Amino acid sequence: MAYVYAQLVFIMPPSSGLFRSVIDSMWNRLLTRAIPFNPVDFALPADFRLTGLHNYTSQLDWRMHRLECSLKQLEDGSYQATCTAQIFMVLDDPFIYGQIAAVAIMSELYALGILAADTIVPVVEVGLGLSDHDSITLASMHLTGFSSAMRHLTGNAGHGLPYIARCAFSSVGGTVIGTSRTFVPASNARPGDLLVLTKPLGATFVLALYQSMMARDADWRRVEGIVTERVVHRLYQTALDLMRLPERDAARLMQKYGAHAATHVGKRGLVGHATALVLSQSQAVDFSLSTVPVISRLAELAIALGDPSQLLEGLAPEVSAGLLVCLPPSAAFAFVAELNEREGVRATVIGRVVKGTRAVSFYRNLTKSVQVGPF
């Protein structure tokens, strides 16, 4: 696999002529920009745009809204989902970041209730200012982390040749394709449904706090009187564990308990992704959010810092922050109980679906943050 090839390049002595020739060969072969997503390749309209999915109605007469995922029905009646994501750097460890990127991408499939990927094509973008040696080193570590997580999640799924490109910003991501006889539509939320979030929020807040602690900057000086370095290190590990925790069990339980709609929570934050999902509903409903679950200790820390990212209002950007699931009221608490029994206390009912105008009802004076943990 190309991952192994990159590792072999990395461990060769930098002074050897073979190292230089292999670098040149690798870059001549792989250093190219990732091929843009082409909807025609997946039997979708040529003007199909991911951000416009809520305006698209398929011939099967159901509505789709996936910011980074498309779905089509194959001739044999099964459904094929093609999901793409690119995750920008939020922490220093390139190996762990590769793992997080893999889990984040698979969350797109899991939000459809699809449990496995058939094909995986990783994409690594490295910064323009890096040397060839540093670029190959980082790319090999990203790909190694990415592939290690994907092997755990997908087993023997086919891996396409990784794309490695020089770009203004570094990122890890790719495309995954999964096929299933059944899926969870994104458009069937009904009044009375309960909204469940499968992970607490705040991982990116913790990463920023950790960086502040390491830099001893002004933000750290504002909170060092209420939190110890030991606690921050523990929170940091919790954040990494949560971002690397896959949603495969949640996807399986979505099928079991008859979920009506779901989406992943990522860079647009809880409210942003909830808004995207509610816009795709076939019925005129609102999502009424009443609770913002956050990692333990984060509420007091966010308040001490003035909550600059608006974490406690559900507006902070996240990475691999779980699934937002619409479930029948008779099934929601059983879903939460079974998921938490399998993976620890983390899933929470955060609101309900009501009749409305496809909006998210979320008011500052009604927000209640719930701290979830420890893990």
Automatic annotation (TrEMBL):
A GO term for molecular function: ATP binding
Location of the PurM-like C-terminal domain: 190-360
Gene Ontology terms: biological process: selenocysteine biosynthetic process
One GO cellular component term noted in the UniProt record for this chain: cytoplasm
Highest taxon above the source species: Eukaryota
Keywords: ATP-binding, Nucleotide-binding
Name by which UniProt lists this protein: PurM-like C-terminal domain-containing protein
Protein source organism: Anopheles dirus
